[in-house]
Amino acid sequence: MNEPPGGAGDLLTSRDALLGGRLSLRQPVKGHRVGSDAILLAAAAPAEGVARLVDVGAGVGAVGLAILRRLSGASADFVEQDVDLAALAQENAAQNGLQTRSRIVCVDIAEASARRAAGLLDGAADLVVTNPPFFDARSGRVSPDARRASAHVFVDKASSDSSAGPLENWILACVTLLAPGGRFILIHRPEALSRILAAFGRRLGSVAILPIHPHAGAPAHRILVAGVKGARSPISLRPGLVLHDSSGAFTPIGEAIHRGEVLIDWGGARAPR
Kindly report the CA angle at 200 between 161 and 66, in degrees rounded to 5? Predict the structure, then answer.
């Protein structure tokens, strides 16, 4: 933490350095805070070939801003329906000198008419990244902190597609934003894999799954899943990534990723450009 907490409207916030100081973020002190999930998702994005990206469920902008820092020719839409977090994402883009390449869109991604009215065009993005809520309201895993709950739990409301759940509708909306040949990447819990793949259907191919293990010998607690719109190659399961050693410290690769020194390339890691 680089600065003492400060206020932002009714939010108590702190300013924190991520990626070995490469990224500065203002974020709420309470509720959901940027952590390993965001760092891993950003590190899983391509090192090149992206002109337009969309960060869905962007929060304070950590994932999209981390990607923009290393993709000098790219621009990004940050989709966040919480107005306070969207305001912080706007501030963070400016703080990191990325405001001219960033657009903050305060909208529910699952509402097609609203996102189109906000200028999110179908079939236009080279890359969509997302860290969606992990639970729905029926799971009972709802935090008493409203902002933390909104980051972790889908709002329980009528779906435009009665055959699909909120995670599936979220994924379908994300894929709709992709151009043919565009890449979609999300991070989630392993138990959601069957639902994720069902939502992909035949829309995405060249699907790769990368398990994330908290330490050696432990079951994966996260998965990174990537796919290419319109591709037809089969699914591949990549070697797992172990984050911590037996002492609880980061492994060398875990430390390097969290410092922004290497990127996940779905078969290892490499230095960012």
Answer: 105
Break the chain into its structural domains and give their ranges.
35-270
The pTM of this model reads 0.88
The separation between CA 12 and the C-alpha centre of its own chain, rounded to angstroms, equals 23
Give me the half-sphere count of Cα atoms (radius 13 Å) on the Cβ side of residue 268: 3
d(CA 232, CA 123): 18
Q: What angle do CA 113, 115, 121 make, to 5 degrees?
A: 100
- For 220-232, write each residue's pLDDT tens digit: 999 999 999 999 9
Can you tell me the distance from the alpha carbon of 116 to that of 107, in angstroms, rounded to the nearest whole number?
A: 10
74, 35, 82: which is closest to 58 by C-alpha?
82
For domain 35-270, the question of CATH label 3.40.50.150 is answered with: yes
Entry field: residues in the chain: 273
